[in-house]
């Protein structure tokens, strides 16, 4: 790899052994993808927000950086909290060292937004920005909807990018890798963006899908991409006439698509949990990625003046939760029996000890993919199971 004089000096130890280790990690990472150089980033986003005992190497690196007085060199945000206070098992078993971990992140200068929807307010990328982000749902949104550029980076690598302000140049940072591979045609009667994302993710892996025009709003684009990223490793998608790099098919296809997939209403409906079994769900779960205030308003209106018959959880972007608390809707949701949280539902619900909670129903395609026993239903399904429709 062709390093600048300053980069080589850091690798050689000019800023201490901790920074040398971070630089060495990035160089090795880049070389594995044939990167020729490191380039500056505008911001970083970290995925390692959970204090899980098995991530020993990550915590060791954080500790060394903190002890050396290292600070992040670019604005850096962090993924959601894991739900330490959500259950006794989380407090006593899963995330016992969470407070210490958060203290370490703060000492590094990380912004404590604790959200996977970091692009919403805390870390808003602009078109063409080079980023060093982890968290698949944030990466795909930044690339696709904002038109910024970042690869699907991982835990450990992300903190090295944050403290150096650099990322290896490869993959989705180059124009040629942002072209479409697969054409997605929509032949549906009722849009279900999470189901569409799940089908696309399951149909292709590590490709760039291009969807024919549909007037998705930002919330739908968020959930569509998050599910694609979870189910199929998608880091970038285009929607004709909607996403910024795709004013037309010609703009993103240099040649004929490798494949054309048509998604029908029957395909979407097949993702849903069998209606006869839906009532056996122990919980109804919203918010993976976390809900924005607009989502809370849109979904929450169905609960106003009613009472849930099944335990119902909303997981909300922390800054938006603070805004919600100022609105009458907050108390109306609480009165309806909705439980409001700001942690990650996947982490919070991973350890479920009571048999009745073995199955939960969610309208999140991402949570459906990742959470064992996380069954999928569209919005009508989950509202009906919650007892408000």
Protein described:
The chain has 389 residues and is α/β, with parallel strands linked by helices. It has three domains: 5-174, Aconitase, domain 3, CATH 3.30.499; 179-271, no CATH class; 275-386, Aconitase, domain 3 (2-Layer Sandwich). The chain has 18 helices and 14 strands. It has a five-stranded parallel beta sheet with strand order 12-11-10-13-14. Helix 3 (56-67) packs across helix 5 (98-108). The longest helix has 16 residues, at 17-32. The termini are far apart. 47% of the residues are buried.
Topology (elements, then pairings):
Elements: H1 5-11, H2 17-32, E1 38-40, E2 44-46, H3 56-67, E3 76-78, H4 88-94, H5 98-108, E4 132-133, H6 136-146, H7 157-164, E5 166-168, E6 182-187, H8 193-203, E7 209-211, H9 218-232, E8 238-239, H10 249-252, E9 259-264, H11 265-271, H12 275-278, E10 283-291, H13 293-300, E11 311-316, H14 318-324, H15 328-336, E12 338-341, H16 345-349, E13 360-362, H17 365-370, E14 374-376, H18 379-386
Helix pairs in contact: 2-7, 3-5, 6-9, 8-9, 8-11
